[in-house]
Sequence to fold (663 residues):
Amino acid sequence: MLVHSADSMGTAAVYSRTRFVTAAVTVLIGWLFLLPFHTPNPLVRWSYDLLQLALPHHDYTDVAIIYLDEQAMQDYQIKPGQTWPRSIHARLLDRLTRDQARVVVFDVTMTQPGEAADDAAFAQALHANGRVVLAGDKVPLPGISLGYTIVPPLELFETNAAGWGTAKLLIDPDQVCRRNLAGDPQEPGLAWAAATVAGANVTRNESLRLAEERWLNYYSSARPFEGSSMTYTNAEASPAGFFRDKAVFIGGKPETLARGEITDVFGTPFTKWNNRFIPGVELTALAYANLMHTQWLSRTGLIGELILLLATGVIAGFGLFVVRPRWVPGLALLLVGLAASGSVIGMLSSRTWFPWAIVSFAQLPCALACHAFARREPFASPSAEPMTVRDGRPEIPDHAMIRCIGEGAYGQVWLARNAIGLYHAVKVIYRSRFGIEEPYDRALRGIQKFMPISRSYEGFVHILHMGRNDRLGFFFYIMEAGDDQKMGQQIDPALYAPRTLGSELRASRTLAPRACIELLLAVTEAVDRLHQHQLIHRDIKPDNILFVNGQPKLADIDLVTTLSAPGNASLIGTEGYMAPEGPGSAAADVFSLGRVLYVALTGKAPVQCPELPTNVTAHPDSGLFFELNQIICKACDFDLQRRYSSAASMHADLQKVSRRFAK
Fold:
């Protein structure tokens, strides 16, 4: 007869439960390394950089780069900081016209007039060639810190060129350019404009320009066009016909710069090994070659990466507990090899890459640590898994749940009718969606702290009741229903759609500057009241500003928690609105307020801050527009010493601007 001791049975049960805990933690670790998705963290950057070594090398001869380098400046007797005479550009352009170059790209800004005769000669050369693309310039706005706009080339040149584009580069925090910026909704990027003139297939459908994020293919080389690069002097001395059917890129700066000039060199995925930097014109040429030959790289996308990291997290979390302890290191190395080789195969077959380093250097170490800890220490029994809600409708006392009107990562919002026929909104937060207990408990504590003050100020969404159902694993709170987008408080439950600032901006794109002031005065005061009670919001964005009887109110308050040091709060928020130091402080909420004002005022995406629309000077309220932009720049400053320290300070500046322009 076999007998199992109580200790052995308990240990087996603990290990069984630990597998689930390890898998959940490993998956969450992988997902956290994807945030923020559009600002690659070191593991994502390393994944991309190392995969560049596996790409096939291409030595294309259809691209030529002509440098405005130090040697050329000496040959033409041009001093540092001096603008190149456009007569020299006109002479070179005439030569390229005779050679029948496919496209000529001046990665040199020409927004200011020069010598009249030189400008006329260059304009005539542009017209004669008919295939020249010029660069727009990033120009700061006078008296506005951090504010800038993109201006086109001089009108004389723009009307004679085949096109122009923005010469901005998307540079990651380590000063490496990894993505091809195709421009914004208003203007194309310089590489896209050049590829359009050259007849690239992808550019024939303008809707594809911003349809995806394109990552640069460096062709396994730090400088793939080094063999076809030359100084300006060598270009003029090259044999006739040398540039036939080539894309010719002209740009760069000398190593010796004049005082105040900005450097034009950037890192590549190979810089960390060879310590070599390249000028911006080479990056533009690289992006052009990717577009012409349809060889840019694509990332798997947020949903695909979440699924892949879910699979690798589950495999690592469960797999290490299945094999014998002495085989665990070998299994871990095997998983590392599979992640890396799978990424290489996927990239070579479809030019799609996956951040495999998250698996190798985040998920697997996490799973190994949990496995080692479980082998040494007994775990307390975790609480039982919550039951699912019957028919998908949570049971809320004295309320008929009509339909779900919104869903987020951790819960749902339902339109409900109470016993006397009044409509309310009910937010239901599910424990199972958090994966671990602490964030769920923190959200519950946040509501408990906020509810007593929710009706103390009109700028808060009023919490009418709160409850919890530990058996089914959720808590809920009942709040006043927001206005319908069309009918206000005349709610038709079949058609009801809540009116938020997000829905307003989706309908009209921007708000008038005076409407922005009124809105932000109300919201900053609400946030200040929240901070006075030692609470923070953590996810201020347009969709979380709800209108009730026309009054803007701070909503989605289950994310409210206590003030803490920057970065100490849970990393909850929305990309573009989240402060760079992370949530937790009053200043982090102020950063989000600044981004909300920026989006409402300009109609641009939050990550484009502080870039302004090209027609801002023609705005009927341009003076007020610029005043508000100064407030935005201060609220969104990455330096905490220069940012508003409180919502009250931002509110005070808004009041000053409001009074000044009310006169």
